[in-house]
Amino acid sequence: MFNNTDKRYNQYSAHLKNKFGVKVYKITLDAGFSCPNRDGTISTGGCIFCDEGGSFSKAHSNILPIAQQVEVGIKNLSERFKAEKFMSYFQAYSNTYKPVKELEKIYNNALKNDKIVGISIGTRPDCVDNEKLDLISTYKNDYYTWIEYGLQSIHDKTLKFINRGHDYDCFLKAYEKTKERGINVCVHVIIGMWETHEEIMETAQKLGELGIDGVKIHMLCALKNTKLAQMYQDGEVKFMDEDEYVNCVCDFLEYLPPQTTIHRLAGNGLKTELIAPLWLGAKFDCLNKIDKEFIKRNSYQGLKYIYN
Protein backbone atom coordinates (compact mmCIF):
# COMPACT_ATOMS: atom_id res chain seq x y z
CA MET A 1 0.00 0.00 0.00
CA PHE A 2 1.24 3.50 -0.84
CA ASN A 3 0.53 6.94 0.67
CA ASN A 4 -2.20 5.61 2.99
CA THR A 5 -4.30 4.54 0.01
CA ASP A 6 -5.42 1.16 -1.30
CA LYS A 7 -3.29 1.62 -4.44
CA ARG A 8 -0.58 -0.90 -5.18
CA TYR A 9 1.55 1.70 -6.89
CA ASN A 10 2.97 5.06 -5.83
CA GLN A 11 0.29 7.32 -7.29
CA TYR A 12 1.62 10.87 -7.77
CA SER A 13 -1.61 12.62 -6.77
CA ALA A 14 -1.67 10.70 -3.47
CA HIS A 15 2.03 11.42 -3.00
CA LEU A 16 1.36 15.14 -3.36
CA LYS A 17 -1.51 15.06 -0.88
CA ASN A 18 0.65 13.14 1.57
CA LYS A 19 3.51 15.63 1.09
CA PHE A 20 1.49 18.84 1.36
CA GLY A 21 -1.47 17.67 3.48
CA VAL A 22 -4.07 18.85 0.93
CA LYS A 23 -5.10 18.14 -2.64
CA VAL A 24 -2.56 19.50 -5.12
CA TYR A 25 -3.38 19.85 -8.81
CA LYS A 26 -1.25 20.69 -11.82
CA ILE A 27 -2.19 23.77 -13.83
CA THR A 28 -1.31 23.11 -17.46
CA LEU A 29 0.36 26.11 -19.06
CA ASP A 30 1.21 27.05 -22.62
CA ALA A 31 3.95 29.67 -22.96
CA GLY A 32 4.15 29.51 -26.74
CA PHE A 33 7.21 27.28 -26.93
CA SER A 34 8.19 25.39 -30.05
CA CYS A 35 10.22 22.21 -30.53
CA PRO A 36 13.49 21.62 -32.43
CA ASN A 37 11.97 18.51 -33.91
CA ARG A 38 9.14 20.49 -35.49
CA ASP A 39 10.72 23.81 -36.50
CA GLY A 40 13.33 22.24 -38.77
CA THR A 41 16.30 22.52 -36.39
CA ILE A 42 16.55 18.72 -36.12
CA SER A 43 14.05 17.50 -38.67
CA THR A 44 10.63 18.33 -40.03
CA GLY A 45 7.30 16.91 -38.96
CA GLY A 46 8.21 16.07 -35.38
CA CYS A 47 7.54 12.76 -33.66
CA ILE A 48 5.03 10.61 -35.55
CA PHE A 49 2.58 10.68 -32.61
CA CYS A 50 2.70 14.40 -31.78
CA ASP A 51 -0.27 16.53 -32.80
CA GLU A 52 -0.41 20.25 -33.52
CA GLY A 53 -0.96 21.00 -29.83
CA GLY A 54 2.41 19.53 -28.85
CA SER A 55 0.83 17.08 -26.39
CA PHE A 56 -0.94 19.96 -24.68
CA SER A 57 -4.29 19.42 -23.00
CA LYS A 58 -5.52 22.73 -24.48
CA ALA A 59 -6.96 23.82 -21.16
CA HIS A 60 -5.95 27.40 -21.91
CA SER A 61 -4.79 29.50 -24.81
CA ASN A 62 -1.27 30.90 -24.94
CA ILE A 63 -2.93 34.17 -25.93
CA LEU A 64 -3.33 34.68 -22.19
CA PRO A 65 -0.22 35.77 -20.24
CA ILE A 66 1.24 33.04 -18.03
CA ALA A 67 0.23 34.74 -14.78
CA GLN A 68 -3.36 34.95 -16.04
CA GLN A 69 -3.32 31.30 -17.15
CA VAL A 70 -2.30 30.44 -13.58
CA GLU A 71 -5.16 32.47 -12.11
CA VAL A 72 -7.70 30.90 -14.46
CA GLY A 73 -6.34 27.44 -13.66
CA ILE A 74 -6.57 28.01 -9.91
CA LYS A 75 -10.13 29.26 -10.19
CA ASN A 76 -11.29 26.35 -12.36
CA LEU A 77 -9.55 23.60 -10.40
CA SER A 78 -10.66 25.02 -7.06
CA GLU A 79 -14.29 25.02 -8.16
CA ARG A 80 -14.20 21.65 -9.90
CA PHE A 81 -11.99 19.58 -7.59
CA LYS A 82 -11.80 21.60 -4.37
CA ALA A 83 -8.05 21.85 -4.89
CA GLU A 84 -6.17 24.00 -2.38
CA LYS A 85 -2.59 23.99 -3.64
CA PHE A 86 -1.21 23.89 -7.17
CA MET A 87 1.80 23.18 -9.35
CA SER A 88 2.53 25.19 -12.48
CA TYR A 89 3.00 22.67 -15.29
CA PHE A 90 4.59 23.76 -18.55
CA GLN A 91 3.28 21.08 -20.88
CA ALA A 92 3.05 22.15 -24.52
CA TYR A 93 6.07 21.37 -26.73
CA SER A 94 9.61 21.80 -25.30
CA ASN A 95 9.51 24.20 -22.38
CA THR A 96 13.22 24.92 -22.14
CA TYR A 97 13.53 25.81 -25.82
CA LYS A 98 14.22 29.52 -25.40
CA PRO A 99 17.14 31.64 -24.16
CA VAL A 100 17.64 31.40 -20.42
CA LYS A 101 16.68 35.05 -19.75
CA GLU A 102 13.31 34.50 -21.40
CA LEU A 103 12.85 31.26 -19.49
CA GLU A 104 13.46 33.03 -16.19
CA LYS A 105 10.70 35.57 -16.89
CA ILE A 106 8.28 32.86 -17.97
CA TYR A 107 8.92 30.60 -14.97
CA ASN A 108 8.83 33.50 -12.49
CA ASN A 109 5.43 34.59 -13.80
CA ALA A 110 4.11 31.08 -13.12
CA LEU A 111 5.09 31.24 -9.44
CA LYS A 112 3.62 34.54 -8.27
CA ASN A 113 0.46 33.16 -6.66
CA ASP A 114 0.95 32.01 -3.07
CA LYS A 115 -1.13 28.90 -3.73
CA ILE A 116 1.58 27.58 -6.08
CA VAL A 117 3.78 25.03 -4.31
CA GLY A 118 5.68 23.58 -7.24
CA ILE A 119 6.75 23.78 -10.85
CA SER A 120 7.02 21.04 -13.44
CA ILE A 121 8.68 21.65 -16.81
CA GLY A 122 8.10 19.28 -19.71
CA THR A 123 10.89 19.21 -22.28
CA ARG A 124 13.29 17.12 -24.36
CA PRO A 125 16.71 15.94 -23.16
CA ASP A 126 18.34 17.73 -26.11
CA CYS A 127 16.81 21.07 -25.04
CA VAL A 128 18.67 21.59 -21.76
CA ASP A 129 22.16 22.82 -20.95
CA ASN A 130 24.07 23.77 -17.82
CA GLU A 131 22.80 27.36 -17.80
CA LYS A 132 19.15 26.36 -18.11
CA LEU A 133 19.46 23.65 -15.47
CA ASP A 134 21.20 26.09 -13.14
CA LEU A 135 18.21 28.41 -13.51
CA ILE A 136 15.68 25.68 -12.79
CA SER A 137 17.66 24.52 -9.77
CA THR A 138 17.22 27.96 -8.17
CA TYR A 139 13.53 27.15 -7.62
CA LYS A 140 14.00 23.89 -5.73
CA ASN A 141 14.42 25.40 -2.26
CA ASP A 142 11.07 27.19 -2.40
CA TYR A 143 9.05 25.00 -4.78
CA TYR A 144 8.65 21.30 -5.48
CA THR A 145 10.63 21.31 -8.71
CA TRP A 146 10.44 18.77 -11.54
CA ILE A 147 11.68 18.38 -15.07
CA GLU A 148 9.72 15.95 -17.23
CA TYR A 149 11.80 14.41 -20.01
CA GLY A 150 10.20 12.76 -23.00
CA LEU A 151 12.29 9.63 -23.39
CA GLN A 152 9.62 7.16 -24.67
CA SER A 153 12.04 4.19 -24.88
CA ILE A 154 15.65 3.29 -24.13
CA HIS A 155 15.95 1.60 -27.54
CA ASP A 156 17.54 3.76 -30.21
CA LYS A 157 15.89 1.79 -33.01
CA THR A 158 12.50 2.79 -31.62
CA LEU A 159 13.51 6.42 -31.14
CA LYS A 160 14.67 6.54 -34.74
CA PHE A 161 11.48 4.94 -36.04
CA ILE A 162 9.23 7.44 -34.27
CA ASN A 163 11.45 10.31 -35.52
CA ARG A 164 12.33 11.32 -31.98
CA GLY A 165 15.46 13.25 -32.99
CA HIS A 166 17.68 12.15 -30.09
CA ASP A 167 19.07 8.88 -28.75
CA TYR A 168 19.13 7.24 -25.34
CA ASP A 169 22.64 8.50 -24.59
CA CYS A 170 21.39 12.07 -24.99
CA PHE A 171 18.80 11.38 -22.29
CA LEU A 172 21.39 9.85 -19.95
CA LYS A 173 23.62 12.92 -20.20
CA ALA A 174 20.70 15.27 -19.51
CA TYR A 175 19.49 13.09 -16.65
CA GLU A 176 22.91 13.08 -14.99
CA LYS A 177 23.22 16.87 -15.21
CA THR A 178 19.72 17.32 -13.84
CA LYS A 179 20.21 15.03 -10.86
CA GLU A 180 23.56 16.65 -10.06
CA ARG A 181 21.54 19.79 -9.34
CA GLY A 182 19.00 18.03 -7.13
CA ILE A 183 16.09 18.47 -9.51
CA ASN A 184 13.38 15.79 -9.55
CA VAL A 185 13.02 13.97 -12.88
CA CYS A 186 9.88 12.42 -14.35
CA VAL A 187 10.41 10.28 -17.46
CA HIS A 188 7.73 9.82 -20.12
CA VAL A 189 7.57 6.40 -21.77
CA ILE A 190 5.23 5.03 -24.42
CA ILE A 191 4.04 1.44 -24.50
CA GLY A 192 3.08 -0.23 -27.77
CA MET A 193 5.75 1.11 -30.15
CA TRP A 194 6.60 -1.95 -32.24
CA GLU A 195 8.61 -3.39 -29.35
CA THR A 196 8.53 -6.85 -27.87
CA HIS A 197 7.38 -7.31 -24.29
CA GLU A 198 10.99 -8.01 -23.34
CA GLU A 199 12.15 -4.73 -24.88
CA ILE A 200 9.47 -2.78 -23.00
CA MET A 201 10.55 -4.41 -19.75
CA GLU A 202 14.18 -3.50 -20.50
CA THR A 203 13.10 0.15 -20.42
CA ALA A 204 11.40 -0.44 -17.06
CA GLN A 205 14.45 -2.19 -15.63
CA LYS A 206 16.82 0.52 -16.81
CA LEU A 207 14.67 3.27 -15.30
CA GLY A 208 14.63 1.24 -12.08
CA GLU A 209 18.42 1.04 -12.09
CA LEU A 210 18.63 4.81 -12.53
CA GLY A 211 16.30 5.33 -9.57
CA ILE A 212 14.01 7.62 -11.55
CA ASP A 213 11.95 9.96 -9.33
CA GLY A 214 8.81 9.72 -11.44
CA VAL A 215 7.41 7.96 -14.49
CA LYS A 216 4.54 8.88 -16.79
CA ILE A 217 3.32 5.96 -18.92
CA HIS A 218 1.42 6.56 -22.15
CA MET A 219 -0.25 4.16 -24.53
CA LEU A 220 0.73 4.71 -28.16
CA CYS A 221 -2.27 6.29 -29.83
CA ALA A 222 -3.22 8.02 -33.05
CA LEU A 223 -4.45 11.60 -32.79
CA LYS A 224 -5.89 13.60 -35.65
CA ASN A 225 -3.47 15.24 -38.08
CA THR A 226 -0.46 13.14 -37.10
CA LYS A 227 1.74 10.86 -39.17
CA LEU A 228 0.74 7.99 -36.88
CA ALA A 229 -2.92 8.58 -37.71
CA GLN A 230 -2.13 8.29 -41.40
CA MET A 231 -0.15 5.09 -40.76
CA TYR A 232 -3.13 3.67 -38.88
CA GLN A 233 -5.54 4.57 -41.67
CA ASP A 234 -3.16 2.93 -44.16
CA GLY A 235 -3.13 -0.27 -42.10
CA GLU A 236 0.53 0.07 -41.13
CA VAL A 237 0.01 -0.03 -37.38
CA LYS A 238 -2.06 -2.04 -34.93
CA PHE A 239 -2.56 -0.88 -31.35
CA MET A 240 -2.67 -2.89 -28.14
CA ASP A 241 -6.06 -3.84 -26.79
CA GLU A 242 -6.92 -2.71 -23.28
CA ASP A 243 -6.24 -6.02 -21.52
CA GLU A 244 -2.83 -6.32 -23.14
CA TYR A 245 -1.97 -2.78 -22.09
CA VAL A 246 -3.17 -3.35 -18.50
CA ASN A 247 -0.98 -6.42 -18.15
CA CYS A 248 1.99 -4.63 -19.66
CA VAL A 249 1.62 -1.66 -17.29
CA CYS A 250 1.52 -3.94 -14.25
CA ASP A 251 4.59 -5.79 -15.49
CA PHE A 252 6.34 -2.44 -16.02
CA LEU A 253 5.54 -1.14 -12.53
CA GLU A 254 6.80 -4.32 -10.90
CA TYR A 255 10.32 -3.41 -12.07
CA LEU A 256 10.25 0.17 -10.76
CA PRO A 257 11.44 1.11 -7.24
CA PRO A 258 8.60 1.65 -4.76
CA GLN A 259 9.71 5.26 -4.23
CA THR A 260 9.25 6.16 -7.92
CA THR A 261 6.09 8.24 -8.22
CA ILE A 262 3.68 7.29 -11.00
CA HIS A 263 2.33 10.42 -12.72
CA ARG A 264 0.15 8.80 -15.37
CA LEU A 265 -1.01 5.32 -16.35
CA ALA A 266 -3.95 5.87 -18.69
CA GLY A 267 -5.55 8.42 -20.94
CA ASN A 268 -3.90 10.07 -23.91
CA GLY A 269 -5.01 13.20 -25.69
CA LEU A 270 -8.45 14.75 -25.97
CA LYS A 271 -11.32 12.46 -26.88
CA THR A 272 -12.18 14.77 -29.76
CA GLU A 273 -8.69 14.26 -31.20
CA LEU A 274 -8.38 10.51 -30.56
CA ILE A 275 -8.63 8.20 -33.56
CA ALA A 276 -7.39 4.93 -32.08
CA PRO A 277 -7.45 2.97 -29.87
CA LEU A 278 -10.85 4.22 -28.73
CA TRP A 279 -10.73 2.42 -25.38
CA LEU A 280 -8.24 5.06 -24.25
CA GLY A 281 -11.13 7.48 -23.94
CA ALA A 282 -12.37 5.59 -20.87
CA LYS A 283 -9.47 6.50 -18.60
CA PHE A 284 -10.94 5.44 -15.28
CA ASP A 285 -12.06 2.08 -16.65
CA CYS A 286 -8.44 1.37 -17.54
CA LEU A 287 -7.17 2.54 -14.14
CA ASN A 288 -9.70 0.29 -12.37
CA LYS A 289 -8.54 -2.68 -14.44
CA ILE A 290 -4.93 -1.98 -13.46
CA ASP A 291 -5.96 -2.00 -9.78
CA LYS A 292 -7.84 -5.27 -10.24
CA GLU A 293 -4.94 -6.89 -12.09
CA PHE A 294 -2.54 -6.09 -9.25
CA ILE A 295 -4.99 -7.61 -6.75
CA LYS A 296 -5.44 -10.67 -8.94
CA ARG A 297 -1.67 -11.15 -9.06
CA ASN A 298 -1.22 -10.27 -5.39
CA SER A 299 1.44 -7.93 -6.74
CA TYR A 300 2.57 -4.30 -6.45
CA GLN A 301 5.05 -1.73 -7.74
CA GLY A 302 8.59 -2.82 -6.97
CA LEU A 303 7.89 -6.54 -6.63
CA LYS A 304 10.61 -7.38 -9.16
CA TYR A 305 12.84 -4.41 -8.46
CA ILE A 306 16.36 -5.50 -7.61
CA TYR A 307 17.96 -3.33 -4.93
CA ASN A 308 21.60 -2.47 -5.56
Summary of the model, kept short:
The protein is of the alpha/beta class and 308 residues long. The chain is built from ten helices and nine strands.
Would you mind describing this structure in some detail?
With 308 residues, the chain is of the alpha/beta class. The protein has one domain (12-297): TIM Barrel. It is 36% helix and 17% strand. It is built from ten helices and nine strands. It has helices at residues 12-20, 66-81, 100-109, 130-137, 156-161, 168-180, 197-210, 227-233, 242-254, 283-297, and strands at 24-29, 85-90, 116-123, 144-152, 184-191, 214-219, 222-223, 261-264, 274-276. The strands form two sheets. Strands 1-2-3-4-5-6-8 form a seven-stranded parallel β-sheet, sandwiched between helices. Strands 7-9 form a two-stranded antiparallel sheet. Helix 4 (130-137) links the parallel strand 3 and strand 4. Helix 7 (197-210) packs parallel to helix 9. It is globular. The model has no long low-confidence stretch (mean pLDDT 93).
